[in-house]
Design a protein that fits this description.
Helix 5 links the parallel strand 4 and strand 5 (135-146). The chain has a seven-stranded mixed sheet with strand order 3-2-1-4-5-9-8, with helices on both faces. A two-stranded antiparallel ribbon has the order 6-7. It has six helices and nine strands. The protein has helices at 4-14, 29-37, 54-60, 73-82, 121-134, 164-171; strands at residues 44-47, 66-69, 90-93, 106-112, 135-146, 153-154, 157-158, 175-186, 192-202. Bound molecules: S-adenosylmethionine.
Length: 204
Amino acid sequence: MTNVFSHWDKVYNTKNHAKVSWHQNHSTTSLDWILDSIQKDDAMIDIGCGVSILADNLLAKGFNNISLLELSTIALETLKHRLKKSADKLTLYNENILDFESDSTFKLWHDRAVFHFLTDPKDQQTYLQKLDQYLQKDGLFLLATFSPDGPKECSKLNIVQYDQTKICNLLGDKFSLIKTLNEKHPHPNGSIQSFNYFLFQKTK
Ligand SMILES: C[S@@+](CC[C@H](N)C(=O)[O-])C[C@H]1O[C@@H](n2cnc3c(N)ncnc32)[C@H](O)[C@@H]1O
């Protein structure tokens, strides 16, 4: 992963944030599943949050222990400014998930359209090691990736498409699948992108 910081900063610097392919006006499956899964004061982290509306939606529901991790400084500063009235409920990390270090652990780890950018098996393993290290026992891993009938790239970067078998094999027996859902996400340009959502529980 070379120059990933500058790649994503350029995306957020040059594109209308409401027109990027992954944009949502309101969070869908992620929000529904988080509301069903954890309590409002449980620690959760959104990996590669971008400028996502998810944190706004969770704050509006009373969640108060939200960490946001994002590679792009521009995206994270945008969120920080937008959510400044709720700063006491947020912890911000401006870094690459592959380098993540923290004293905190999390009840829920959310990743929508970030893990699938890791095409190198070594990077995938580093990510999974961070997940294992920072997710509490019995914690939840909520992952959304492009599905095998979805796009093969995003923002000019190759991605890895996942179905249930592929992600379960990669995660191994430390995680058990609670549920999965295919979602047809409407791209702001009018096309449709097929996402797979997975909710796992850490069992070991
Ligand atoms: C397709 S966007 C999804 C943004 C957000 N999760 C959402 O659903 O709206 C991918 C985001 O992941 C961030 N990202 C990509 N690779 C990352 C990495 N290795 N560590 C942290 N963030 C990363 C990008 O900067 C970008 O904001």
